[in-house]
Amino acid sequence: MTSAQWPILYRQHLTTMQDRAASALARAGLDHLVVPSGTLHYQFFDDRDYPYAVNPQFKAWLPLTRNPGSWLVYTPGARPKLVYLQPRDYWHVVPKAPSGYWTTHFDIVVVRKEEEALQHLPADPSRCAILGEPQSALGDYVPGNPAAVVDYLEYHRAYKTPYEIAMMREATRRGVRGHRAAERAFRAGASEFGIHLAYCQAAGQDANDLPYGNIVALNEHGAVLHYMDRDRLPPSPVRSFLIDAGASHDGYACDITRTYSANSGDEFQALVDAVDAAQLRMCAQVRAGVDYRQLHLDAHLALAGILRDFGIVSLSPESALETGVSSAFFPHGIGHGIGLQVHDVAGFAASESGGTIDKPPGHPYLRLTRTLEPGMVVTIEPGIYFIEMLLEELRAGPHAAAVDWARVDAFRPYGGIRIEDDVVCTDGEPVNLTREGFAAG
Ligand code: GLY
Ligand code: MN
Ligand code: MN
Hints:
Layout: H1 6-28, E1 32-36, H2 56-59, E2 71-74, E3 81-85, E4 107-111, E5 128-130, H3 147-157, H4 162-187, H5 192-203, E6 215-218, E7 240-249, E8 252-261, H6 267-283, H7 292-309, H8 317-323, H9 325-329, E9 349-351, E10 354-356, E11 377-380, E12 383-385, H10 388-396, H11 405-411, E13 416-418, E14 421-424, E15 431-432, H12 433-440
Parallel strand pairs: 1-5, 3-4
Antiparallel strand pairs: 1-2, 2-3, 6-7, 7-8, 9-10, 11-14, 12-13, 14-15
Helix pairs in contact: 1-3, 1-4, 4-5, 4-12, 6-7, 7-8
The structure holds glycine (GLY) and manganese (II) ion (2 copies).
């Protein structure tokens, strides 16, 4: 797949978006889909804005992520229309004139002021499904986000088009460059802050573009699932490194985690290698017809087997899962859908018209309960962590004797392990975008 094919893939993608929109509108008995790109958000009592985050419903149609104040209008049977805000403003960089392979598919109207968009929206707002945040309201065009439309679009968004997978491959290419640079910086003795900068430099992205805040954790910090601090000095000694960092391309995300020991011959690296091998087996389970909840429960069994093999827990994997002991070491879900959003929507959707598929009891943090089908892209991110709070609870509970606390103490200074790839479900073998990316880069 080369970028030369993107225009063809994009055209097919747009057809899919139009078909989905037509079905969604028919369900709601509405005539037009109207999607504002979103607005800037300001800090309270301040005039500073947060990094702009485009409305995902907008970027689903267009590779535009830096255009606040624009509007997409789609009326089934007509060409999609883009009302493109290009303000006259000498304080900020204004969006360039529309350009790129996508432009030929839209009727484009350039406006200079936000209010000017009004005259280019459908005449009767009550006939529109307006999808957006409340701040995007313009006159009578107030986002109502009708459930019949949103549920339908979000449910179907789980099935990626070939164009979307191409965009995620491109995001992965960037992410892999960042991860390679981060590992080099770690091996060279950089601090968390230094590693983060090396990542951003190599990925060519920062808070404006990254799909989520980088998690760059040395030693015990690997035990904080969403560790967002970045120490300016490296610890001494440096033992381990967990990095969960992604990248984006034209609005699509990758989500990648790797863990390394400072000493490739030590037992922590052996534990990392065991999780890595188990993770690959889990990735191989990403197949059509597999219930993702089962994949999560199987992951517990696999990780509990590793805990037993390393002499950390003496229970059988089945008892470790049943008693909740495995959850003390693996306290999050096995993964989630990914695409336009790093945690993609509709993870629990029972159908295109709503409903919820429950999580397995005792597993509150699983974000995806659907059965896998071709086109879905999911992360597979098992981990083993040594988290003080959870270890204290385990030690005070009825299963304390099933744990070798001396072994726990030996691993505690390394924090934790997570290995995370993004995997496409197909009608045959799964495609691991992340491993492909590392193999190519
Ligand atoms: N990077 C957040 C996650 O892995 O879900
Ligand atoms: Mn993830
Ligand atoms: Mn992640």
